[in-house]
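[Automated response] Your request has been received and processed.

Submitted sequence:
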Amino acid sequence: MTEGDIALTPLAQSDGRTKIRPVVLLRRMPPFGDWLVCGVSTQLHQQVTGFDDLIEPTHPDYRGSGLKAASLVRLGYLAVLPAGHFTGVLGPFQPSVMRGCFRGLRHFLQPNGRFRAARGRPGG
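Generated structure:
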């Protein structure tokens, strides 16, 4: 597995059940080599415009990604998972998608960085 791969991993859902879900491998974390990952979702209605990346079948990186439907790279859904936690790899994203992810996170995380979602969620 390498940075930019779309991997499959068990993740807890809001209902408490665990489900195998796709994630993007962003970066290996010191000191144990765990992975910083970003969630991938087909729930397009949850897109945070200007923050999440939409990967549609017409996107140049869609074909080799292994995704089965238009999907969001959910920058607001980050986790650090052990390297042994993954059950497989669907395929890679190209560097252009990864640069977009890092650019969005960098902008959001810089001092005084703020993001105002186009649509709000209660309590969010």
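Summary generated for your ticket: The radius of gyration is 14 Å. The chain has one domain: 5-109.
If you did not submit this request, please reply to this message.
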